[in-house]
Amino acid sequence: MAWWPLLLLTVLGLAAWQAGKHMQFRLISFSLWVLLAALAALFYPALFSHIGQFSLQRLIIPLLQVIMFGMGTAMSIQDFRGVIRTPRPVITGLLCQFSIMPLVGWSLAAGFGFPPEIAAGIILVGCSPSGLASNVMSFLARANVALSVTLTAVATALAPLMTPLLMRLLGGAYVEVDLATMMLSMVKIVVLPIAAGLMVNRIFRRHLALINQLMPRVSMIGIALVIAIITASGRDNLLAIGAPLILACLLHNVAGYFLGFGVARLLRLSPADCRTIAIEVGMQNSGLASGLALEMGKVATMGLAPIVFGPLMNMTGSALAGYWREKPLAEKPTS
Fold first, then answer.
1. All structural domains of the chain
2. Using N-to-C axis directions, what is the helix angle for 209-233 and 286-295, rounded to 10°?
3. pLDDT tens digits, 59-90
4. Would residue 144 be called left, alpha or beta, if left means φ above 0 and alpha means ψ between -120 and 50 degrees?
5. Whole-number Å distance between alpha carbons of 310 and 33
6. Model-level pTM greater than 0.70?
7. H-helix or E-strand containing 50?
8. Helix, strand, coil share (%) of the chain residues, nearest 5
């Protein structure tokens, strides 16, 4: 192996380490660590494949469950009550979430002419809900953080029903989608861990300081490991597809921002709400999509789009949040 991959990984690691020391660069730091994990797996796939006879793919679902548990501890029943307090922007955001990204993913999969399982992976990303990263981006973008948290909570709660149904409808032509099996997988990966986290939040609310400090870091490490393991598993396919898949994922992500913002603006929501919906729609829970690909036994093919989409959305989301942070909010459009 040439010396330059090790040098590149070292430089990326140092840059991520330094960025993490400054609050304004924390998100860039996370993106760099994720990129480092993906490149390390591309250059040295054996390190992320097996430890002895143990396949590291067996860690993916437990890692995702830990991440979802952390999401649950950061939520409360109050987050879901936001639907009652502000139904219009919440309903708008949910309709955009479960229409724009699935349809854009389906269009890109068809337009690029990818192999069936790669195409299904793009659709799977589009059918997934948003994740906690969107809440952080909304905060940095001076958007409506309460709306962001509500949308993430409700979209995640609806995902065990909506994601399998949308995959069956839009992705069924590419891969066989067993509706009941996928729903059970969603319950295992999403519902049970989040329910456990909500319970911990409710029972130990006064003693959550340590968990709230630890879980974001545990989640970041977990996401980086998941990306590294899936990258190693699908390395040959990823190298074969390469640039077209990166371009498709970038278009998917950016289309989510523009179309989400455009629909919210068209419906005359407040500027802060428009920013929030754009971020919620454009940023997907790619880790969850990776786990579902693994549950379907197609992580080396369907799992590729999620691992490309994840780092890309963090980088574009950071850039968009930074731009909006410096741009004053306009007045709400009048009827």
1. 59-325 (1.20.1530.20)
2. 50
3. 888 888 888 887 777 777 666 666 677 789 99
4. beta
5. 12
6. yes
7. strand 50-51
8. 80, 0, 20
